[in-house]
Structure formats: C-alpha cells, structure tokens
Amino acid sequence: MTDLSDIVTSAFWRVNPPDADPAETREWLEAFDALVQSEGRERATFLLRKLLDHARARRVPLPPVLNTPYKNSIVLADQPQFPGNLEIESRLSAIVRWNALAMVVRANRAHAELGGHIASYASAADLFEVGFNHFFRAGQDGDLVYFQPHSAPGVYARAYLEGRLPEERLANYRQETRGGLSSYCHPYLMPEFWQFPTGSMGLGPINAIYQARFMRYLEHRGILTTEGRKVWAFVGDGEMDEPESLAGLSLAAREGLDNLIFVVNCNLQRLDGPVRGNGSVVQELEGLFAGAGWNVLKLLWGADWDPLFARDHDGILLKRLHETVDGEFQTYAATDGRFNREHFFNKYPELRELIAGMSDEDIDRLRRGGHDPVKVYAAYRAAMQHGGQPTVILAQTKKGYGMGHWGQGKMGTHQQKKLDDEALRAFRDRFAVPLSDDEVAQARFLKPAADSAEMKYLHARRQALNGYLPARIREAAKLAVPSLQSGPRNQSTTMAFVQLLATLMKDETIGKRIVPIVADEARTFGMQTLFRQFGIYSALGQLYEPEDSEELLFYREAKEGQILEEGITEAGALSSWLAAATSYSAHGTPMLPFYIYYSIFGFQRVGDLIWAAADSRARGFLVGGTAGRTTLAGEGLQHQDGSSHLAASTIPNCRAYDQCFAYELAAIVEDGARRMLEAQEDVFYYITAYNENYPHPAAPEGAAEGILRGLYRLRPGDGLQLLGSGPILREVMTAAEMLQKDWGIDAGVWSVTSFTELRRDGMAAERKHRLGGEATSWVEKCLRETKGPIVAASDYVRAVPDLIRPYVPRAYIALGTDGFGRSDTRAALREFFEVDAKSIVVAALAALDRKLVRGALDRYGIHPVARPPWER
C-alpha cells in the first residue's frame, strides 16, 4: 500500500532527496546562471519550457511546478520603503487590539451566552491595519472590502477610534435589541456601516470575485468608470475548504481580474484544530490558486527571519520548514522560544549554529509574516501593482497572537471569550497599552485625546484615502420605470416574462440598467431572441465565428454585451446577481438584475446566498423558471420544484409571487421595479414562471390592487370559494365549471398571486389587533362576505396555501403537491398529486357534504389508493 506521507510530500512540498552527484548539480546550476546573465530571463524561461516538454515526452516524472519554497515571495532586495510611522501605527494597532478584546470580554462578563471571538482578529490585526492606513480607499469610487467575519470586533474598535461608533454601542456588542453591534458583518442590521455580509463561510470569496467581475462589466458597457478600484477579500485558510470559496477562482483568472486581491489569513487553525495538521495549507492553496491562474504572493515570515535566511547558504532552514507540518507549526505558535529552539532549530547541527547568537527571547520574538507591517505593506503594494491577473496573498499568522498561554496557538482559542485579570494584564503588557491595573480589570475602552499624535495620524491617513470605511450608502439616483402591459395571447408565462424583459431593455431611461442573468438555460427560457440585439457579455469580445452565425438569432458575445451568461454555476450566477442588485449602494449606480433559472436550483440549491442577498438589502428580480412540481413535465424528481415558495416566505424582504396570467406578471414586475428604482425600497422579488402554454386573457377591471396584494376575484359564486395560484388556477377554473355543470353548485374563483404577501398582511393585522388596535387582513376583507367552504390549490406543497389558514374566515381545505416529483405528463402528474380539476371538485364536495364524495369518485373514475402521494 502506498504511504500517504509520500503522496503529500510529492504533491505540495519541496523536500528534495539527497543529491547523488553534487558536482554535476552545481555545473547545471552554474550553466543556467550563465544563460540568464548572457541571454536574459525570457530565454531561460523558453528553455525551461522546452526541457519540461522534453521530460514529458521521455515520461520523466515532473516536480510540483506550481509550488515555490516556503518563504516570502518578495525578497528583501525588492522590498519597498515603508511609508508610514511604524511607532505610531504600532501604538494605534495595540489600542485597536485592546478595544476589540475588551468588547468581547465585557459582553461575556455581562451575559455568558452572547459569545464572540477574540483570536481571529488577534491574528489578522496587522493585515487590516496596514490596509486601513495605506491602501483601502473609501467612497463609492473607492475600494470594496469583504472583511473576515470573525474579525468584526477589530473593525468596530477602529471605527470607535475614528468617532463613527459611540462607546455605548461597543458596550452593547452582540446586544442589538438594545442598540448594540451585530455579531458579524450584516448590512441589514447596520445599513450605514457594513457593505457585504460574510458571516456564512465561503460566500465572501465568491461574492468578491463576481463583484470584481461586475465592476468590469459596468466599465465595458460604458455605465461607470471603475479603473483603479480594487476589491479586497479577507478570508480564513479554513474557510477555503468551502466549495463556494474555490468556485470562482478560474473565472477570476480567465477574465484577468487584476482589480481583485484575496488575503488569506493562514493562521493554520480552524475552529477545532489545525486546518491541515498533517500537511501544509499554504503550499496546498498556492498550488490551487497558481493552477487556476492567479498571481500568488507568500507572506510567511517577518523581518526577524531575514538574517537567518541570508546566512542559510546550504538551504537547511528551508529544508526544516518544508518538512514541518502545520500541526507542528501550531505547537510552535503555542510555545515559547526555549521550546522552539529545542524542537525546531536543534534538529540539525547547521540550524543550531545558525541561531547560536540568539537568546530564547529572540527566538520567541520571531514573527510570522502577517504580523510584520513592513512585510504586509510590501505584499499589498506588489498586489496593487500587478496587472493581468488576480492576486492572492497567503499571509501566515498565529491564531490568538499576543494572547500568551491563554490563547495563542491553542486548540480552543477560537472559543476563547473570557480572560481573567492576569491574562488581560499580560495582553496589555505585551502590546504596551497605556492602562492601569484597575482599568484593565474593568476592561475599559481606550481612546486617546483628539489632539494626540495617534489620533491625528489615524485621521490623516484616512483623509488621504478619501474617508472612512466600511461605510454603506443607502440610496442612489431614482430612475423612472415605464408602464408595462401584456395583451391576450396563447403562450407560457416564461415567454411573457421574456417579452416584458425585452421591453424594459429597450426603454430609453432604464434600458441600459437592466441586467439579464442566466446560468446556462437561456434557450430553455426562450431568451435566444435577445442574443443578437443585446449581446452576451465577454471581456474578450468574440474571438471566433459562432457555428450559428448565419442564423438570425446567432450566439453573439461582445465586450459591451448586456446579458450575463454565467455557465453551469448557480452559485456564480446568484453572486453575479447580488453584485448587480447592490450596485446602487456599492457604486452609487442603480441596476435592475433579472436572474432566471430552473426554480428547483434556487432556494433549494443556493438558499444561503439568497439569504445573503436579503442581508445585503439587494434590489432585483429572481425568476424561477420551469417552475411547479406538475407543470415541468418529464424532467422528474430532481428538477420539479414544489417548495421554493415556502422557502421564499421565510425571507422578510423577499416579495414572492406565483401568478397565472401575463397581465398579472406585468403588474407585478412594474410594481416591483417602481418600488426598487423609484421608491428606493430594500426589497427583492421572487417570481415563478412556467413553460406551459395556454391562453392569457386581458386584465379584468379593478384587479390591480388584488394582484399586488395577493388575492382577487375572477368569478363570483355563492356555493363555495375556490382559490388557485400559478397554472393550477386553470385547474381551479375548470373545477368551478364542473361543479356548476355536474352538481349545480355555483363556485366563486379567486386568483392567488402570493400566499406569502397574504400571510404577511394577515400577520400584521393579527398583531395590531392583539396589541389593542383595529385591523382586518386582506384575506378576510376579500372572503368574509362570501359563502361556503374555501378550497385552495397550488403546484407547491400544501404548506404554501396553508400559510393563510389563520386568516381564512371559514372552513379551509388546502391542496398541494407534497411528495417526490416524477416524470410524466402534466395531466398525469396533477392527477397523481390530486391537484387536477377532478380532485379539486372532490375536495369541494367533501367540504360541502361528504355524502357526495362517493358519487363523485364514481363519476370521475377516481380510485382512491391506500397511500397518499407523499408516501408513494
């Protein structure tokens, strides 16, 4: 059996086997040096490529060419002069560190259940502070920063020094109902502070990638100048295990997004233990990013290591670093200089000699790269200046840095929320925070006087970078929305939607602001009609002649293309939609995105991203195409959606509609666009569209209010009331005719465009009534004067029509498509799930008089089976 340790070593590390012929090796190296000196680096690169090709042809195993040695990418000779005042910045950093720690400690002294995190910001403080002091440009024409969520206390602590957050809010950290601060980065909860929600691991990285890409889209379409702006994403090394963290890496490289900088905080620990205890996460990530086409910068060691590397002529220090796994690096972080001398440096005599003049205290002070502002500045500057590729900085740090034996490098440091007085004093002393023992015991916040050198420096640096961040703008320019109409026609609601979309895209006022987005199903939704006229966005234009170039509706890619065709990546398409849906805030440029997709692959597949959109106060339309468990015939279990509207109902600022007719769709889209672009409301819409063709009538008089509120009457009737949504409304209409014809029962018919809107209206009325006020729900207003039981049916699980049960004034029966989807015709599926017209008639008769049921079953040839649909 193969030894796994051999695989790991060969894959990521550069521990070379013993040299069988050092003299020959030296000759090869000297010859290569001579080549570089005489003919230049380009010639040397050419020969290396030829050698690699020749080695492949001779079937010689190749080394891991995507990995570089375990040291800083920027050598000392190329390191720029640090432009700031290191002494003042160190004092400021110490104060921010202390206030962040004090915030968490105080909160948990008062209420132990509040939680919070100290160790993550302790490891990332210098990475943030160098950015705040020298790189992060504020404003809607500045940079966009996706902060690592567990480091939020540090961002709050800095904003407190800047005068943007009062002490009372810090004192109420994680106590939001009392005016405190949110746990992580939540724009919904702090709408003038946080820009991007990153609390769900993995979403920050993919959102940052598509944000950078969307900025290029705006630039190429001539809507907004974004040149020079950067997107920064601060990510944890453990977070890079999330599929979303890696999902967009190739896109970023493929499109040359040199406006994108990832900073991966490689403190080598996740919540429970090492990220790669038996391996090297830095080397692994380097291979992943480099293989995807990124520029990789390693920021591993502080300036204290420079003399050691300079004296390491034989590479013994590098050899020792390469053979050390991350589990060992964590132990070295948690222990002192004496332990590190004994267990790391004393392994080889040459290493022992290398540190002969260093005391244990000197060894203890050896910093990792992410804790050295000079090295951090050099890496950031190199990333800023690099062109043609996105850049990732792999910054090695210590989790819980500065927390001593109470937290630094400890397995449980992520959960460390309480520190005793001794630990607090040690932290104060470690960073020279000017507080007395009594002030330390009280965990008092520290803010220097306004005229102090520290405060003057802090404000001067931010003014030089155009102000303070994070900061979020809540409104943008208002745009007028045109009136939308949809006349009678035999078609699907999907085609009706595409026609409305084309109308909006042609509008002189908002046409350019419409952003159509698809994953890879534009033809399924009939959107190929838009290809030629509006084009598919491509940063490269179209470098080939498409196969269908002679056809009228050929596949046209263009640098100024308006349609975003994202490929088979729902997470990527949703991230692209989110960038467009928050453009009003991030860029001061309102856009109106429409992302259409298979409805089953929305809330079910990327629900976390949709919640992030809600948190972001996104404005746009999500369109669940080929919707409904029985309307999407033939595709079967994993494609038929019967639950998305139930999921949508749980998101407070999502307005969900399941309309049947094109005129309803037109009214809903127009109203939604007005609410978002004219009224500046922080809402987004979820609309389901279907692929079933049927006649669409003209809009009845007086239906507008009911369409938007969720319920209106199509036909009066005194015997009972039938409610239907989506295409199942047509089954309801047929059932009403059958009841009249076969049973002499006059049934009223109602179109339910949104069970969700009806429920929220009912909840508001119920709450007002409960608190002593007077209110009547829309459901009750509509139905209270009618007669007979009420039967509702939809193409979704029964829990969807059940949303309004508390507000229905009489007996209520809900029908739905509970169970597993399956392949068949629409008629067969609706019969199977008991939402066809015959089943609705039976349900209505059972509600009126159960004695009628037997006759109905016989009349319609219905043979009840022992097991219901959801058990089959």
| Spatial order of the strands forming the largest sheet | 10-7-11-12-14-13
Strand content: 5-15%
- The count of DSSP E runs of length 2 or more, i.e. the number of strands, is 20
What's the shape? globular
Determine the number of helices (DSSP H or I, runs of at least 4 residues). 35
Largest sheet: 6 strands, parallel
Radius of gyration equals 32 Å
> Share of helix among residues?
40-55%
**Mean pLDDT reading:** 93
Distance from N terminus to C terminus (CA atoms, Å) equals: 46 Å
**Category by helix and strand content:** alpha/beta
Low-confidence stretches: 7-11
Topology:
Blueprint: H1 4-12, H2 22-39, H3 41-57, H4 86-110, H5 119-134, E1 144-146, H6 152-161, H7 167-171, H8 203-220, E2 231-236, H9 243-247, H10 249-254, E3 260-266, H11 281-292, E4 295-299, H12 306-311, H13 316-322, H14 326-334, H15 337-343, H16 349-354, H17 360-364, H18 373-385, E5 391-396, H19 421-431, H20 437-441, H21 453-464, E6 489-491, H22 493-506, E7 514-518, H23 531-534, E8 536-537, E9 557-558, E10 564-565, H24 570-581, H25 583-586, E11 592-598, H26 603-615, E12 621-625, H27 644-648, E13 654-657, H28 662-678, E14 684-688, E15 694-696, H29 704-709, E16 711-715, E17 720-724, H30 728-743, E18 747-752, H31 755-770, H32 778-783, E19 790-793, E20 812-815, H33 826-832, H34 837-848, H35 853-860
